[in-house]
Amino acid sequence: MTIRELMSGGLITVRRETPVLEARDLMVMIVRSALVVAVVLLAASVQAQDSGALAARGRVVFRDQGCYGCHTVGATGTPIATDLSRIGAKRDHAYLARWIRDPSLQRPTAHMPKIQLSEGEVQALAAYLGSLR
Fold first, then answer.
1. C-alpha torsion angle, residues 79, 129, 52, 39 (rounded to 10)
2. Which domains are delineated in the chain?
3. Which residues on neighbouring strands pair with residue 77, listed in sequence order?
4. Counting beta carbons within 10 angstroms of the beta carbon of residue 67, is it exposed (0 to 12), middle (13 to 18) or buried (19 or more)?
5. Dihedral (C-alpha) 54, 57, 63, 66: value to the nearest 10 degrees?
6. Of 22, 53, 68, 99, whose Cβ has the fewest other Cβ atoms within 10 Å?
7. Confidence of residue 29 (pLDDT cuts 50, 70, 90)
8. For the whole model, what pTM was predicted?
C-alpha cells in the first residue's frame, strides 16, 4: 500500500500546523541571514587585522629586546639558540606566551633568561613568533 492510498483511505492524516511562509517573510529571513553572515565576516576581518598589527609590534619587541643575539629567524640572527623561523607551526600562542614570561617554568634547564616585559609586549611577541610558519 502506498502513502497516497493510506492518505486517501483516512489511515494517515496530514495536518499543517506551520503556516506557509509568504514571500515577504522569506525575504526578511534571507536579509537577516545575510546580515548575520556579514557581521561574522567583518569581525573575522577585524580580528585578522588586529592580529597582524599585534605580530608587527611583536617583531619590534623581538628586535628591541635583542632576541636575534641568540636566535635566528630566516637568515637573520645568531645561531646560538633555537632557530625560530617556523616556531609558529610547532607551538600555539598560549605556549609561546608562557615561555616568554618565564622559560624556566616550561623547562627548568632552559638557558634563556627571564626577560622583563609588559603583558602587552609578551602578547605581541607571542603573536609574532606564532606568525612564523
1. 160
2. 23-131 (1.10.760.10)
3. 72
4. buried
5. -70
6. 22
7. confident
8. 0.65
